[in-house]
Automatic annotation (TrEMBL):
Name of this protein: Hydroxymethylglutaryl-CoA lyase
Classification via NCBIfam families: PRK05692.1
Pfam families reported for this sequence: HMGL-like (PF00682)
Family, per entry: Belongs to the HMG-CoA lyase family.
Domain Pyruvate carboxyltransferase: 16-285
Keyword set, alphabetical order: Lyase, Metal-binding
Gene3D superfamilies on file: Aldolase class I (3.20.20.70)
GO molecular function: hydroxymethylglutaryl-CoA lyase activity; metal ion binding
GO biological process, any: ketone body biosynthetic process
Signal sequence coordinates: none
Protein's organism: Intrasporangium chromatireducens Q5-1
Length: 310
């Protein structure tokens, strides 16, 4: 079978926006630097497969994440197509914003932490200090009518601190959204979340005035829970899902963070449930197979393995 049998499932949105993170979050942990031209081709193939929102790169210093040291080269290769409101890039601070502004980007993402240890390791800041770093970034971006997303990492567990209280995550989310961000992405960075935990967190955010119309979910598949957690979030009203083509991904600062939810696995499940994504699954699988060849290893996506043998 090349496509699932469609049997509409109750309680799901009619349409889901896939926020494709493969070119950035998917590749950032690769030890061998992928050439900029390959990254540009990857993004072009994702566009051709029907993905509307694609996070292209990151403006972190190359000494932090060497894989993202070619942001300007990648965006130059994409031209005008790479700077619109559906082509966000990660911006860690005002210097990163300066670089993004020079290229005319219309959408950016900041990345915060719900836990002290990860904030120190990833940002060299405390949880409280991260707000002071992000505030001028968001203020400047919104003054120029840029779209801003806020990531929150370690929402469901932390490899150093263990369980993360729901209210602690909500406190951080509220502070970041209070800066003026347009969208909040909840990250299960080490993939330990479960469906009940997802429901509890979304309920708690709603009580603080952050509804699912402003929330995206970002699940890693370390324990095989990413798709189940995503479907639970969709039943609670979320309609934006982060995913990475081929299941690529990881975090340089959290070694237990394995790959993201595979975009192909998500598209297969949503298609079977009667939910529109606008994505051509065959083209997406072809793209994953091509990218796996560039990286020299098979795709971890279950759907890619089933349809293309890796």
């Amino acid at each position: 079978m090349r496509t699932p049998q469609v049997e509409p499932a109750a309680g799901l949105p009619a349409e889901v926006t896939i926020y494709e993170v493969g070119p950035r979050d998917g590749l950032q942990n690769e030890q061998t630097v992928v050439p900029a031209a390959t990254k540009v081709e990857f993004i072009r193939r994702l566009e051709a497969a029907g993905l509307q929102t694609i996070e292209t790169t990151s403006f972190v210093p190359a000494r932090w994440v060497p894989q993202m040291g070619d942001a300007e080269e990648v965006l130059a290769g994409l031209g005008a197509d790479g700077v619109g409101r559906r082509r966000p890039a990660l911006v860690p601070n005002e210097r990163g914003l300066d670089r993004a502004e020079e290229l005319g980007l219309q959408a950016i993402a900041i990345f915060g932490s719900a836990t002290e240890t990860f904030a120190r390791k990833n940002l060299n800041r405390s949880v409280t200090e991260q707000y002071a770093m992000f505030e001028p970034v968001v203020k400047r971006a919104k003054a120029d009518d840029r779209w801003v997303r806020a990531y929150v990492s370690m929402c469901f567990g932390d490899p150093w601190e263990g369980p993360v209280p729901v209210e602690q995550v909500v406190d951080v989310a509220e502070r970041l959204m209070g800066l003026g961000c347009d969208e909040l992405s909840l990250g299960d960075t080490i993939g330990v979340g479960t469906t009940g935990h997802v429901h509890r967190l979304l309920e708690a955010l709603d009580r603080r005035g952050i509804g699912t119309d402003r929330i995206a979910v970002h699940f890693h598949d370390t324990y095989g829970q990413a798709l189940a957690n995503t479907m639970a979030a969709l039943r609670d009203g979320v309609s934006v899902v982060d995913a990475s083509t081929g299941g690529l991904g990881g975090c340089p600062y959290a070694k237990s963070a394995t790959g993201n939810l595979a975009t192909e696995d998500l598209v297969w499940a949503l298609t079977g449930a009667g939910v529109r994504t606008g994505v051509d699954l065959d083209q997406l699988v072809e793209t994953s197979v091509w990218m796996a060849q560039q990286l020299g290893r098979p795709s971890p996506s279950n759907v890619v393995r089933a349809l293309a043998g890796g």
